[in-house]
Amino acid sequence: MKKLLTTVTFLTGLSICAMAQNGSDSSKSGRPLIDDKTKQDVRQKAGQASEKMEEEVNKSISYQQANQLSWFEPNNLFVGGGIGMGATDGQVYLGINTRIGYFFQPGFAAGLRLDGDRLVGNKYHSRQVGAFARYYPFRTRISSFVGASLNSGREFSENTPADTKYKYTSVGLEIGVMAWILHRLGAEVSYESSFYNKIDPTVSRGKGGRLKVGVNYYFGRVAGRGVKLAR
Q1: Among the ranges 140-154, 161-175, 214-228, which has the highest mean pLDDT value?
Q2: Cβ atoms within 10 A of the Cβ of 105, count?
């Protein structure tokens, strides 16, 4: 890859010089800055670089296709859970998250989630339920994903009267990686940033992003013809 980038940079510099040949030099001699042989060499190098780049892309695609896990095929069901940690206003909070998901298209899953948060050293805690969607662009034993969620939650604190309900909604954006560790089990690390409305600052003082670690268990297909998950 380093050699490829060096070649592309070199060819870019030669192309810029080639564009200058439309004008004459300072001596008004009319002699081109780059002769025909140099231009031919530039075109040849550019062709070689293009072929090399296409070859690398095709190798990457072939690898993804040959090593793709059957976990991410349509009709596969999975459940997962983990813990998260974040900080807000100088305080640390811990969270527990659970999820159940279903793959509708290759690499695209959607499902339901249930989460709970608690501030360390404080009686504040919250819980929320929501819907999420994830897409896995790379689906080998080391995979990556991006996701989004829409949630509805409730806050509890010593500052709130027993007969008062503090509710909020949130939108979460997530990015992470997952690694195959057992036949049906994957471990993941992700970062989620959440955006809230109707959250009471006197109760929770807001929440920030969180780093999460967890596992997912894949059952295989639950609709249509069954599939043997890759070992």
Answers
A1: 140-154
A2: 11
pLDDT greater than 90 at residue 133: yes
pLDDT tens for 184-198 read 999 999 999 888 776
Distance CA 219, CA 231 (A): 13
Q: What is the rounded average pLDDT of the residues 212-228?
A: 76
Q: Which residue has the tokens 């806050």?
A: 155
Q: What is the pTM of this model?
A: 0.68
Distance (Å, whole) CA 149 – CA 111: 9
Tally the C-alpha atoms within 13 A of residue 38's C-alpha that lie toward its C-beta: 12
Q: Kindly state the tokens that stand for 176.
A: 């992470």
Burial class (CB in 10 A: 0-12, 13-18, 19+), 195: exposed
Which residue in this structure is represented by tokens 């994957």? 186
